[in-house]
């Protein structure tokens, strides 16, 4: 898993010429200038994560998308991939097992949004945490979104149907509701605060009922 922003990309020399295939370079060049850095950082993060898992030359790697919108490295169907962007930061992860990542900036949000994305049982569960307010909302959102992205459904499944059943400051277990016909059903999520962002990584629990 790799997390990167424009400043970090410049420090490591992550230019379009070094990191993008010819097709990707055309995609990048067609984007509005304001979107190019974040888009490039997403590709850089995913490709560097892939090279931590497998061997290869970075410019030979090309990011594509499976049916349903899940990213992939072309020619490597056995590798699971996930990308997320927020506020100039990007994260990418690769794995031999299903994986999902999400990164979100902490910013003011309506208080009622917490009730929209959580069940009453979840709200009781998180009372013992030290985080609260917008931090808590962002933490829970990224944990749920990482799981739903790993399942390639995003907000096609209501956040309440991916329920946090155990949580600490930097780790949680998320379980799908019984009426959600997807597997794996139980997920481990690792959460981290990076500057003004929360970042979550979701992988299946062992014996998760696949």
Describe the fold and architecture:
The protein is of the alpha+beta class and 210 residues long. It folds into two domains: 2-95, Ribosomal Protein L22, Chain A; 100-204, 4'-phosphopantetheinyl transferase domain (Ribosomal Protein L22, Chain A), CATH 3.90.470. Helix content is 33%, strand content 28%. It is built from seven helices and ten strands. A five-stranded antiparallel beta sheet has the order 6-10-9-8-7. A three-stranded antiparallel beta sheet has the order 1-5-4. Strands 2-3 form a two-stranded antiparallel sheet. The longest helix has 21 residues, at 33-53. The protein is globular, with a radius of gyration of 17 Å.
Measured distance between first and last alpha carbons: 24 Å
Number of structural domains: 2
Task: Provide the CATH topology of the largest domain.
Answer: Ribosomal Protein L22, Chain A
How would you state the average pLDDT, rounded? 94
What fraction, in percent, of the residue positions are helical?
A: 25-40%
Instruction: Indicate the proportion of strand residues.
Output: 25-35%
Uncertain spans, ≥5 residues at pLDDT below 50?
Answer: none
- At the fourth level of CATH, the homologous superfamily of the largest domain is 4'-phosphopantetheinyl transferase domain
- Could you give the count of β-strands? 10
**Can you identify the CATH class of the largest domain?**
Alpha Beta
Task: Provide the gyration radius in Å.
Answer: 17 Å
* CATH architectural arrangement of the largest domain: Alpha-Beta Complex
Q: What is the number of helices?
A: 7
Quickly give the structural class: alpha+beta
């Amino acid at each position: 898993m790799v997390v990167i922003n424009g400043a970090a990309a410049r420090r490591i020399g992550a230019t379009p010429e070094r990191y993008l295939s010819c097709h990707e370079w055309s995609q990048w060049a067609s984007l509005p200038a304001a979107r190019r850095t974040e888009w490039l950082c997403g590709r850089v993060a995913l490709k560097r994560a892939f090279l931590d898992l497998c061997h290869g030359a970075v410019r030979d790697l090309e990011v594509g998308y499976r049916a349903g919108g899940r990213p992939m490295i072309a020619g490597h169907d056995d590798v699971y991939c996930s990308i997320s962007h927020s506020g100039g930061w990007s994260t990418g992860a690769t794995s031999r097992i299903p994986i999902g990542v999400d990164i979100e900036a902490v910013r003011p949000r309506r208080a009622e949004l917490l009730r929209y994305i959580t069940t009453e049982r979840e709200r009781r569960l998180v009372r013992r945490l030290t985080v609260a307010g917008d931090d808590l909302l962002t933490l829970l959102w990224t944990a749920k979104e990482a799981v739903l992205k790993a399942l390639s459904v995003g907000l096609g499944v209501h956040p309440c149907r991916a329920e946090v059943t155990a949580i600490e400051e930097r780790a949680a277990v998320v379980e799908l509701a019984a009426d959600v016909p997807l597997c794996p059903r139980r997920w481990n999520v690792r959460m981290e605060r990076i500057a003004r962002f929360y970042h979550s990584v979701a992988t299946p629990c062992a014996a998760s009922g696949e």
